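Supplementary Methods, section 5.1.

A reviewer requested that the exact input to the structure prediction be made available. We therefore reproduce it here, unchanged from the version used in the analyses.
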Amino acid sequence: MRARSATAILAAAIGLGLVTGRFVLPARSPAPGTPTAAPSLPGTGSALPKAAAGPLTEQNLLVAAEFEAVGISQRIYIRDRVGDGSYANAACAGEKTLGETLGGPGAHFRGLVTTTRTDPSDPTLAVDIGGQVAREVAADAVSQALAENYTERLLLEEVPCQDEPAGHWVYGPTRTLDVAPGIAASWMGTYDGNLNTAGAAPKGNEPCGGIAVLRSGSHYAFLQVDACLDTAAMTRIVRAAVTRL
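The structure derived from this sequence is encoded token-by-token as follows.
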């Protein structure tokens, strides 16, 4: 089933010039005291945000306070760099860098970590995956049409991981947030292999973090959340990320 689905999806991707990326995400189970979402989402009751235009800066990236708001109590360190590199789950998307996948100039990489021990070659990655809260990779595509094309391609390469053999970690169904004109996000929750008994994400269970692709005007981003957040918390984080973008 996995092979048939992946073949069909990758065939569709060829026309878009899709290649693959890399980001390590091991299977993990929710620990006791898993943080839950705050009762409201950012932007509720306020004027709609405007789609981004112009250069992307560090001000457009997620901040630690958003994760503190959903229950992460450990101190979160911000680690930034600009350039190219891995951006997605290697077990799903392969070993390519963002530049190899999409081309174009370098991106802004932001790691949110609970440790000072980070990879010397990439300070946005914690040496111990348990110290990684999230990682965001964002850039300016120059035009809104190109940003939309990029996010579609980034999302497409994650879709095959919604269909995995029983016992293998798996992504849940795609959820979409339309925040305002030109501002949208799609995300998939991550489910441990012990919950995958039928080759897909189990119904009625909460995810443990996940991935998202974000678009605001000409800006686009890929977000990997390693913290074990449920649906409500993931929705809040994704909305906050795309609103800032």
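Confidence is low (pLDDT under 50) at residues 1-44. These observations are discussed further in the main text.
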